[in-house]
Amino acid sequence: MKLYDYFRSSAAYRVRIAIELKSLDVERIPVHLARGEHRLPEYLAKNPQGLAPALELDDGTIIIQSLAIIDYLDALAPRPLLTPKDPLLAAKARGVALAIACDIHPLNNRRVLDYLREKLGQDESGVDAWIHHWALKGGLEAVERLIEPGPFCFGAQPTIADVCLVPQLFAARRFATPLDALPKLLAVEAHCLAQPAFAAAEPSRQADAE
């Protein structure tokens, strides 16, 4: 398998964590988003969305979207199972993962921020205000109340919630988002990053890191 990856992408970071947790052998192919490599015809032929990550299977099949890729990896290599078997616990973990992946992350990703700057004429203070508002209000502040640390987001084992949380906190820090009022999230993050799989997936440890 091949993962089309970008070291700074929080969505790709999620998939790297899942791969490391499952000890899968996956080739990493960097797609440099800041240089526009995701818009090149050869990449768009694989992923018409032009986003990272994308997973290419050995037969050439392409899977897009980080949560869909992680679902596939969970079925392929169910140890550890990132979406718990217990229906209620699975729903809670998936709810937090979706809150991050669908409600927080999209509003703060590169293409949205570029549109704010280039099309709507926002200066950096305006862009920062946008980032901080949407990352916190109804976002990470809600996730702080939803998780049930033990010491991962929902108990003693990592779930899809942890896989999404750690990259989102990384992204928040990139934009100097204040996180002091989120002690439960910070405690879960610290526990996660102490685990070898989470540490190996960190952006600074990737071959394409800058």
From TrEMBL:
BP terms from Gene Ontology: glutathione metabolic process; L-phenylalanine catabolic process
Highest taxon, organism lineage: Bacteria
GST N-terminal domain sequence ranges: 1-81
Record's keyword terms, sorted: Isomerase
InterPro entries: Glutathione-S-Trfase_C-like (IPR010987), Glutathione-S-Trfase_C_sf (IPR036282), Glutathione_S-Trfase (IPR040079), Glutathione_S-Trfase_N (IPR004045), GST_Zeta (IPR005955), GST_Zeta_C (IPR034330), GST_Zeta_N (IPR034333), Thioredoxin-like_sf (IPR036249)
Keyword Cytoplasm included in the entry's annotation: no
Record's keyword annotation contains Isomerase: yes
Gene3D superfamilies referenced in this protein's UniProt entry, alphabetically: 1.20.1050.10, Glutaredoxin
Pfam families, A to Z: GST_C_2 (PF13410), GST_N_3 (PF13417)
Domain GST C-terminal: 86-210
Annotated CDD domains: GST_C_Zeta (cd03191), GST_N_Zeta (cd03042)
Classification via PROSITE patterns: GST_CTER, GST_NTER
GO cellular component, one term: cytoplasm
GO molecular function, one term: maleylacetoacetate isomerase activity
The family this protein is said to belong to: Belongs to the GST superfamily. Zeta family.
PANTHER family: MALEYLACETOACETATE ISOMERASE
Name of protein: Maleylacetoacetate isomerase
Gene: maiA
